[in-house]
Target: Oxidoreductase domain protein
Amino acid sequence: MSFKIGIIGCGRIVEEGHAPALSNMRHVAEVVALADPSPERRATIENVLNYKVSGQYSSWKDLLENTPNLDAVLIALPHHLHEPAITDAARFGVNVISEKPLAATLEEVDRIGAVIKEHNVKLAVIHNYTYSRPMRYALRAIQEGRVGEVFLVRSEGLAGSHYKGKDPSNPDWRTQSTRGGGGVLLDNGYHNMYVAEAEAQSPVIKVYARVGRYVREQDVDDLAVVMLTHENGATTVVEVAWAVNGGGAFVHEVHGKLGSIRFKIEAPFVEIYENKIGQWLPLSYADDNFQEGFHGVLQDIFNAWAQGEDAPTNLAKARHNLAILRAAYLSAQQGTVVDLKDVER
Model:
């Protein structure tokens, strides 16, 4: 089965992530329509796809109204536009793949959930950071028990700027609260949360955070330090920033009772220390036949849908991940530990 899909929003993440993946997946999903106010951006995405896309529209409403037999839309818009675009797609009976975060607030997510249910369409959210090869190796080793019960995860991503978009009219929308809905914590830290739960193999139950704007001239946060308590007793410490021009040391480690795993920015990109062996060794598996990156994410979504199942990251999982972030913002505001169940209600 080949899904007919439309892409709503032809920005940088589509150019660098989704379109390259979809260019090699035409037997699974074919892009039949593009929507973006900029003809130049639509042309760029068509060029990356490396095949002609007949439907070219300046708005998502025009795409939805004029594209028959559309199976799904991939939405990659500024965060404040996710809810209206998803709502319109659902009303046309079109399934949705959304970039993260699904929305900036839980209230928006709940309204999205209601309209998805009302119109009986499927929803998937892109959680791509667990689809890198080093991450897959690490998760497999953790699941096999090679480092034992995980008790500490450290995750640092310190940079001097945000992920600048390619919208000709506003490439810095991520730094604007009315469009992004939050700053580095919502945009970058989003990934750290679902990765931490995968590595600790346990959901987050409590959150404590310091979040603020320290350096950048913008109206959203440029630094967040978050401590997560997992249900199994493990602790995760997350540090993300757009305020550190020199960059950080890049720390991403998983520590268990039988050993540790660390990620590196150069080969070997992931190493394992097993206490019984007593030295750091490259971590890899010979039978690594999975698809990496956005190709893997999209492949899993389409496979699940073809079998009549939910996507791996559905509305409930996306809502849970956003709840962790909202708890972090609330913790920073109140200066207290926040119980996640109080936020997820």
Notes: The longest helix spans residues 315-334. The radius of gyration is 20 Å.
